[in-house]
Amino acid sequence: MGRLLPGALLCAALVVAAGLAAAKDPDLSEQALQAAASVGCPAGIIEESRREGAFLVFDVRCGGEAPTVSAGAVFCRDGTCAFRVAEPAPGTAFRDCPHCPEMATLPPGSFVMGSPEREGGRGQDEGPAHKARIVAPFAIARHETTRAEFAAFVRDTGHESAGCGIWDHRARKRTFADTADWFAPGFTQDDGHPVVCVSWEDARAYADWLSAKTGAAYRLPSEAEWEYAARAGTVSARFWGEGHDRACAYANVHDLTGKQQNKLRWEPHFCDDGFGWTSPVGSFPPNSFGLYDMLGNVWEWTEDCWNDDYKGAPASGAARTDGNCAYRAIRGGSWMDPPRGARSAGRAAERAGARNDPVGFRVARSLGAGLRAPE
Fold it and tell me: Which domains does the chain have, with CATH numbers?
């Protein structure tokens, strides 16, 4: 038999399939027998097999017992087994479990990564602009990871992440607070706000937890995947256009409200989005991929090691594993950043173990084999 499932493991297939109308299909019996064999029950009796959404679900008796096992992509609990037989198609949204983030599937494609030299606010680390190819479909969270989603991970694992770099608006400077953390970052949040005060290592641990929960391959996006998702087919500095004067209609950025409330000394966007610190995820319109808060609200961790430019960057869209891996690339800008930060090409470096109040993340998820991008 396969390894016993830990008590906390929730079978993603059963969760997603629950409540869906069962479409009986006798042609699925052979697939069910093969799946039963993969969990150590080659002579199992398949009592019923059915297609439920993107899953094959079947009831099996193995030597008179109802197995609770896991092997690869097949999960069984009390004799009811399931595995995904089709990944979500590009353009669709899905959720693998009740506490999992809602994911959007993106198609393969290519785009020009980085910024042209004429772009306002451009940094030298955004060049040279180059063609990047996303060679296979992948999924990315529609929202930044929320405090509620991260809390579920902490409750389940006991993960500790105390201490955070915060903006002290009274002293008008950044400081490190031993007592600050993701639950109490020094400003008011509720469960619908993006989690902050999380390191790259915390974000990776969360993604690993989702993978263990669901059997799917959750991870952080590469820089190329992140920028592809943020641009959503646009070539302008921001998904709504070139200028930053309209930012407050599309993103939570350092604005006039923030200037008044948190006493930041640098240039704001000369508009008002109504939020001085983080905003609940999804408070602003999505881009054309249906993704929210890709610019502003919080910086987002990516998988990539930090490099000062794109020389030697992989053309495949994969994460960079060379360079200074003690630092990782963050993208998207935040509630406290000036106009140059809230751009699709904007990027910065942060220590992998650092926790700061404008930095959060969203997860990506690998999908099975699918369409390939054209050359």
Answer: 3-84 (no CATH), 93-366 (3.90.1580.10)
DSSP 242-275: S-STTGGGT---S-HHHHHHH---SPPPSS--S-
Q: What would the DSSP string read from start to end of 5-23?
A: PPTT---HHHHHHTTSPPE
Local structure of 304: helix, strand or coil: strand
Q: Which tokens hold the place of 363?
A: 């997860």
Give the residue from 201, 233, 205, 207 showing the smallest Cα distance to 325: 201
Exposed/middle/buried for 127, CB within 10 Å: 0-12, 13-18, 19+?
Answer: middle
Question: Alpha helices, DSSP H only, in the chain?
Answer: 12-17, 29-38, 147-157, 200-214, 223-231, 256-262
Q: How many CA atoms lie within 13 A of 360 on its CB side?
A: 29
Which amino acid, residue 325?
Answer: C
pLDDT in tens, 223-277: 999 999 999 999 999 999 988 888 999 999 998 888 888 778 788 888 889 999 9
- Residues in contact with 46: Cβ distance below 8 Å, sequence separation at least 6, in sequence order: 29, 32, 33, 36, 58, 59, 60
In this structure, the dihedral spanned by the alpha carbons of residues 91, 97, 99 and 105, taken in order and rounded to 10 degrees, is -10
Q: Is the pLDDT of residue 54 over 80?
A: no
Query: For 195, phi and psi rounded to 5 degrees?
Result: -65, 140
**How many other C-beta atoms are found inside a 10 Å radius of the C-beta of residue 101?**
24
| Residue 338 burial (10 A CB sphere; 0-12, 13-18, 19+) | middle
Rounded to whole angstroms, the maximal C-alpha distance in the chain is 71
Quick check: helix, strand or coil at residue 124?
A: helix
Q: Specify the pTM.
A: 0.80
In this structure, what are the phi and psi dihedrals at residue 147, rounded to the nearest 5 degrees? Answer: -65, -35
Taking the C-alpha atoms of residue 193 and residue 144, their distance in angstroms, rounded to an integer, is 9
302: DSSP letter = E
